[in-house]
Design goal:
With about 100 residues, the chain is mainly beta. About 10% of the residues lie in helices and about 40% in strands. β4, α1 and β5 form a beta-alpha-beta unit. It starts with 8 loop residues before the first strand and ends with a strand.
């Protein structure tokens, strides 16, 4: 209805076809996120939706992949924010809205 698209950023090995990826740190180790680069048009404005903001690693990795593919991260929205882990301090100037603070 709004004419908006959806794209998936997933853990390594979950997406078909060519992907670009980035390794990033977690509070308990390392992981890798991947994105199909042709899923974003150059200059597209993107809202990142995630389940939890903890240390900011997933949000930063997602933003970096979107930028590498030619998109612009407009804002971030998460379902829950774990305030004691201070993730906002690690996501730079990205605007972030949390539905629940824990």
């Amino acid at each position: 209805e709004l004419g908006l698209g959806t794209l998936m950023i997933r853990k390594a090995g979950k997406l078909p076809g060519p992907v670009i990826g980035i390794d990033y740190g977690l509070e308990y180790g390392k992981s890798r996120m991947e994105l199909q680069p042709d899923s974003i048009k150059e200059g597209a404005r993107v809202l990142v939706l995630d389940d939890v903001l903890a240390t900011g690693g997933t949000v930063n990795a997602s933003a970096a992949l979107i930028k590498r593919a030619g998109g612009i991260v407009e804002s971030v929205c998460v379902l829950m924010e774990l305030e004691e882990l201070d993730g906002r301090a690690h996501i730079g100037d990205l605007e972030c809205e949390a539905l629940t603070l824990i």
